Amino acid sequence: MGQLSGKVIKATPETADDAKIAIGQRLKDLRKISGLTQKELAKKLRIGQTALSKLEGRDDIHVSTLKSYIEALGAKLRIDATFGSQSALGLKLTGAFEEGWGQEDQLVLPLIDDAAYHPQRDIILSIKPKYSQEILLGTKRVELRRRFPTSVPSGTVMYIYSTSPERALVGSAEISDVLKTPVQDIWDDYSSVACIRKDDFDNYFSGLEYGFVLRLKNPRPLHRPIGLEELRERFDFEPPQSFLYARPMLREALKYEYVKVPN
Questions:
Q1: Which of 30, 162, 168, 172 is least enclosed by beta carbons within 10 angstroms?
Q2: Which pLDDT does position 81 carry in this prediction?
């Protein structure tokens, strides 16, 4: 099996110049990386070496042929449709599929590959200080939202950005599951662990038939809160209106904060 075994090959050109490169040449480069000769790969594809050579010289290839080629390398083809977060279609698709944003500002829907939510992504939620402290104390065991993707995997880490006047990342909790539930049932079933007054609850969910319940576990405070000024300087961070996906550099920094033990 070649070096590409178990890998995901994503067909997305990086720049305008890259897009001009023939797809056949791209495949040829992947074959060389995998360590397979034309003869070896032709045998896997059950075609002649001459036919494979012609294929690697083409600039247009059927998706079915592309899929067979990639799988013969021991990899997996994935083709995604990517929509900007501000596009009208992107917003409509978010509601229709109950999908989360695959990157900081893009909705990625798989066209080939049946997984609805690909890699697990840590998220950051903006939460009022009175509620963020209750989460970290373990008394508030659910977070209530007017809208939230139900496809978030169990175990996703939710970092807590405590809003004004605190304005800092203060800790985390794990999301055990996300439930889309009638608003009245949310109050009946979760008011005892939501730490919210009835009038605030009614105002928040006003006009909605359904709401979303994020069930939380394993709350953990940061060794030290990371203030907004530091977040902006180190990570180009801006507080989310609702939630956003944590960038890799920020995730690594937050993990480091957790392993530091106070004297």
A1: 30
A2: 67
